[in-house]
Specification:
single chain, Rossmann fold, 3 domains, 9-stranded mixed sheet
């Protein structure tokens, strides 16, 4: 069909509307007569009816023509505004005036009320047809918006809750709609705030969420303790609703409680532990104006160390990492945030003593935070020699370089997996602790020269080049270790893994229903690590208070709920069994170790288990040679050196055969 002959949709609408206008004009002035004579048709005088009949049709058609001339039928009434309202009103009143003059002159004078009521009725009917469509659209849109709006339960009917409620009701751009309030004060129950009912206390959360079809919960009790928040959030978490809460009291104090202030509830909010607030003044005094080296500075712990060190005014910060992507990322971040920071980012491995000596010789760091390590338990079980090369021998080489280059403090980042280890990763970290204890012991005895320097090459960076032993005089390096458990969100931790599994629709894999771990946030752990470093006198193993242990299965369920799903319904939880070297629980201290307090209640000192330093140091070179030769019996050698190491004998058949062959060859020799 030719589009030129096709009837456009607006033409049809205009035709219908023009017919309606003609009928509306007839009805409007008839109603005016009818109302004038007490709404009784029989009481209308014949002369008035005759005048009405003679004039009304001509007038209605004239109105329609004028409306066409003024393009009233071309308007898009779906988007009609005040401009269209003014135009219709003006034109309608002008036409009513014309009608009044013409009927009085041509036919006969009509009652005054006829002209007034007729003009009003005509205007109302004309506007009704045009704006009722827009009004209906607005009603439907408002209904749809109300139906699609997030139905919010607001917990806390105090000052913060009332501020938040007013903000939600007053913000047009927010689709939230508060449907009920929860407060533990019985005096507020069954009463209303701004039209919203207070339905009960925390015991009513689950029932109210179901009754009011709630899909979002706001917690607005900034004065509540962490324990109280955790108890409430645990209940809210059962509803499957999206959870948000106010970060703290400062918004209430400033009177700035708004929806934009609400933050998502993170899984750490459900751990129920007061955030650790470390007094960092001592750290500032300790670090300020000094050259600080962070090995493994691109990792999750190392990068946070760098952030906090950069904020405490070091003379120079050196980041040393083998993985260039992580190192580059933290470099960009620190240069943007601290443009005046003297920052050096170097790539290299702690296993390379030549590179490490070069670093210490050039930059002379005064404080070293040694975070470089392999930390993944199952992977290290499959590659035990790599754990020894990187963790134990890498620590030894870095510690030795620090000692002979005048470093003041060497802080080893250790782990609770070093306590009674059942895996090679934990055992390698226990070796690291024993290494720094041995170094400290020899230094305090004035026998630093007896500490062997380990090489896997010609060793041109030999510390005692002139053979006089002068380099070992006035050694003053203090070696300490800081031991803590898992940190939330670190590389390889369970939470990022769980999140990826949830994004894929599950299942979420947990090794054992009863497995527990200690948790701390990365900034908290790093703050305490730095603070513990200021307490050091040499040889200590500092133990951080990690609070109460958390069941990994509970952590998985909480994370599934926080993601908006139902555990074991929407997202399945599967138990895969303990992995090689994995324990049901981690210990913060060995049974033989006691605890000594420090000035900080969150930092303790473990009394070191005595061991023969000379025997240990003499065995290390053999352990290094075995690791670099990739000996299959490396775990057996470690077991001889770490008395608390109890490796599980669940080894792969190929590895077991290799160990047997190696052992038989040794016996033959």
């Amino acid at each position: 069909m030719d589009h030129r002959h096709k009837l456009d949709n607006w033409h049809f609408t205009a035709a219908v509307l023009s017919v309606y206008d003609i009928i509306a004009v007839h009805i409007a002035y008839f109603l005016a007569l009818w109302v004038r004579f007490d709404c009784a048709y029989s009481r209308i005088p014949i002369r008035y009816l005759t005048a009405y009949q003679r004039m009304i049709t001509v007038y209605a058609v004239l109105c329609c023509g004028v409306f066409w001339a003024f393009k009233l039928y071309r308007s898009m009434w779906k988007y009609a505004s005040y401009r269209e309202l003014a135009r219709v009103t003006c034109i309608s009143l002008c036409m009513s005036l014309i009608h009044s003059v013409s009927i009085n002159l041509i036919c006969q004078p009509m009652p005054k009320s006829y002209h007034i009521w007729g003009a009003m009725a005509q205007l109302i009917l004309l506007l009704a047809a045009r704006f009722s469509y827009r009004f209906l659209l607005l009603l439907v849109s408002a209904r749809r918006q109300a139906d699609s709006a997030d139905r919010v339960m607001l917990i806390g009917a105090g000052a913060a809750g009332q501020m938040l409620l007013r903000d939600i009701h007053g913000a047009k751009e927010i689709s939230d709609r508060v449907v009920c309030l929860i407060d533990d004060d019985p005096n507020k129950w069954h009463r209303y705030i701004d039209g919203v009912p207070v339905v009960g206390g925390r015991d009513s959360i689950l029932a109210a969420a179901k009754q009011y079809a709630v899909n979002k919960i706001y917690l607005a009790i900034p004065s509540a303790t962490v324990q109280e928040k955790r108890d409430i959030l645990q209940i809210c978490n059962e509803t499957g609703c999206t959870l948000r809460q106010l970060p703290g009291m400062y918004q209430l104090v400033l009177g700035q409680v708004t929806v934009s202030d609400m933050k998502k509830v993170a899984v750490e909010d459900l751990l129920g532990r007061e955030p650790i607030q470390a007094d960092m003044r001592e750290v500032y005094e300790f670090i300020n104006g000094k050259v600080v080296l962070v090995t493994g500075g691109g990792g999750s712990i190392g990068s946070e160390l760098c952030r906090q060190i950069a904020a405490h005014g070091p003379k120079q910060l050196i980041i040393f990492d083998v993985y260039e992507n992580n190192a580059y990322s933290i470099q960009l971040e620190l240069r943007e945030k601290y443009p005046d920071l003297n920052l050096e980012v170097l790539i290299g491995s702690v296993r390379d003593s030549r590179r490490v000596f070069q670093l210490f010789s050039r930059y002379r760091p005064q404080i070293v935070y040694h975070a470089a390590a392999h930390k993944h338990v199952p992977l290290m079980e499959d590659s035990p020699c790599e754990a020894i090369k990187n963790n134990a021998i890498g620590t030894y080489k870095t510690a030795y370089a620090a000692m002979v280059h005048g470093c003041e403090r060497f802080v080893l980042i250790s782990t609770d997996k070093a306590v009674n280890p059942t895996n090679i990763m934990g055992a390698s970290k226990r070796l690291c602790e024993m290494i720094i204890q041995s170094f400290d012991h020899k230094i305090k005895q004035g026998r630093a020269s007896e500490i062997p320097q380990l090489f896997t090459h010609l060793g041109y960076e030999n510390a005692d080049k002139d053979g006089t032993g002068s380099v070992f005089k006035n050694i003053r390096t203090e070696f300490v270790a800081v031991r803590f458990g898992n940190v939330l969100g670190s590389n390889g931790s369970v939470i990022p893994i769980f999140r990826k599994q949830i994004e894929k629709g599950g299942p979420v894999t947990v090794t054992h229903p009863d497995i527990i771990r200690y948790f701390m946030t990365i900034p908290e752990a790093v703050s305490l690590v730095m603070l513990a470093g200021t307490y050091a006198h040499g040889g200590e193993i500092f133990v951080l208070d990690m609070g109460s242990p958390v069941k990994i299965a509970d952590l998985a369920r909480n994370l599934i709920r926080l993601s908006g799903y139902r555990p074991d319904v929407d997202i399945k939880i599967e138990y895969t069994g303990l992995r090689p070297g994995e324990k049901l629980y981690e210990e913060k201290l060995m049974a033989e170790e006691g605890l000594r307090k420090t000035d900080n209640d969150l930092i303790h000192i473990g009394c070191p288990i005595p061991f023969d330093t000379n025997v240990f140091l003499n065995r290390l070179e053999g352990l290094m040679q075995a690791a670099y030769a990739n000996k299959a019996n490396i775990c057996d050698l470690v077991e001889q050196m770490v008395s608390t190491y109890r490796p599980e004998r669940r080894v792969k058949p190929a590895v077991q055969a290799e160990r047997v062959n190696a052992k038989s060859q040794e016996e033959d020799q």
